[in-house]
Amino acid sequence: MPRYLVERTFCARARTGPAADGRAAEHCDEVIRANAREGVTWIHSFVTPDRCRSFCIVDSPSPEAIRVAAQATALPVDRITEVRVFDPYFL
Fold first, then answer.
1. Helix, strand, coil % (nearest 5) of the chain?
2. 40 CB neighbour count, 10 Å cutoff
3. Is the pLDDT of residue 15 over 60?
């Protein structure tokens, strides 16, 4: 299955990591369920220190499946780029 880098910009602080209202885990569960409906698997994410941008690695049948899953959970999608692993430990 293709792997993608999904770039997101948030108007407010990203809803990732510990949240003051305790909804972070709940929102992650919503994202995982929406992804599963579209065949998308969230591998991991990187978040900038100010929590305004995230870079998510996902496996997905298509960029459109990523967009549909993101829309279901009100996550922004700025750019989707298909990527391959390039790791110095595989050399």
1. 30, 30, 40
2. 24
3. no
Burial of 77 (0-12, 13-18, 19+ CB in 10 A): middle
How buried is residue 70: exposed, middle or buried, by Cβ count under 10 Å (0-12/13-18/19+)? buried
The correct answer on CATH 3.40.1160.10 for the domain covering 3-90 is no
53-59 and 3-9 beta bridge pairing: antiparallel
Report residue 46: phi and psi, to 5°: -115, 140
Q: What is the three-class DSSP state of 71?
A: helix
For the whole prediction, is pTM greater than 0.85? no
Tell me how far apart the alpha carbons of residues 24 and 87 are, in angstroms, rounded to a whole number.
31
